[in-house]
Every structure is written in structure tokens, then in C-alpha cells.
Amino acid sequence: MANRYFEFRDVSKSFGDNAVLKHVNFQVEQGETAVIMGRSGVGKSVSLKLLLGFLEPDAGQIVVAGKDVTGWDEDRFAEIRRRATMVFQSGALFDSLTVAENVAFPLISRGVKIDPDEIDRRVKELLEMLEVSQFADLLPADLSTGTKRSVAIARALADEPEAILYDEPTTMVDPLMAAHISDLIVRLKKTLHKTAIVVTHDTHLAKKIADRVIFLHQGEVGFFGTWPEFEKSSNPVLHNFLQEDQLIPALDATA
Hints:
The protein is an alpha/beta fold. The protein has helices at 44-51, 74-83, 99-109, 116-129, 145-158, 175-192, 203-209, 227-232, 236-245, and strands spanning 4-15, 18-29, 33-37, 59-64, 67-68, 84-87, 163-167, 195-199, 212-217, 220-225. It is globular.
């Protein structure tokens, strides 16, 4: 129990008459990478927004960094969002800042005085790690969707969070960039050992990174377990989901 970093306890969330999540339970251990899967509209991205307080649950409890954050206000969530940060599907970069300035922003805005040379060193290190150094002086408008996501990951890492939440990191990009982002997430998992939750419908990505799979179906957890267990499941819903995804090209030849 002490090592649980994220947890949903009987969480429900509706939008009008649409019950998106119904009494959902799952947990993610510290240092683990969990993948939330399911068809469109089943509450995958909603789950991430609930974890970081961008939405409030209608019922149930939410635990982040071992703390029950249910009902917390914006000020208290500000501290949580420094410890657990989110990479949005859009990238959510500042349009008026260059790539380097975007990555530096969390360091400058944290309210602690940091030597400018240290900021420059950290930004350079992150841009190299995410393989986007050549774009340092460009604005987001000059970047492809995939490159924006790589820069967004670099910015998320700048403040050295304990956990990262990725919202559909490989969607709406070409297969080569999807493979690149997938490899980056794998490398970050192996080198930084941060707790992560990745929302995706991409089974190729999930197979590469998941320690645990959370499959949402009709507002409930239809499966919670390891990837090998997911593949071997006799549940027809899971079986159909996997069969359909096999028609989509793998991220790379070894996936």
C-alpha cells in the first residue's frame, strides 16, 4: 500500500447523462509504467485529468503520491502538479516562446532562484536527450506534431517530476515519428525509472512499455493486469480489440 503512487478508489464521473466512469478502481505502483487503453470515449483522458485535479470526481477517492487528493483546491494541486506532470496530446507549448524557452519555463517559473548557466545546461541536456536540439531556436508553429510532443516531454522533465502522464503520445503522427516517440518513452523508462501512466489505443506502444494494463470498457475496468495476461485473456472484448489493432502497422520492425 505504501508504494502506491496513483490510485482510483471507486471513482465515478459523469457529464450530464453520460456516465463516463462508473466505480473505477486501479492502482499504479511507484516506478511502474501503466497503460490505460480502450476505445474512444471510455474515459482514458478523463482519468488523467482527474488524477491531476483538472476535473473533479462525482464520487470516490483519488490518491496521488500517496496522498488522498479528493476535493483539493487549485493551490494544493499546484504542488502535486510539480511532482506529477502531464504531456498533453496537443503538446500545450507556449506559441510565443522558442523550443529552448519552453523547456526552460518550468525552471524559471518555479519561484526558486536558479543560476542562468544551470538553466541553460539543463535545457541543453534535455533537448539532446529528446533529440530535438536542432529545433532549439524555433517557435512551436514551425514544428511538426511529433516534434512538438518530444519538446513537451522535455519540458515535462525539466522540473524533475516523480511521475509523468502521457495523453495519446503517438496519435496523429506518422509511423516513423510514432516509433521515435515510443522509443523515447522506453528509454526514459529504463534510464529515469519514473512512475508513468500512458493513455493510448496503440497496442504496439502498450506492448513495449506496459508493466500494467488498465482496459476501460463501458465506464468500468474491463481488465487490470500485465500485458502477457492481456494478450492471453479469453474476454471477447479484449480479443476483438487486439484483433482489430493487428491490422495497424507496428511502430517498428521489432515491435
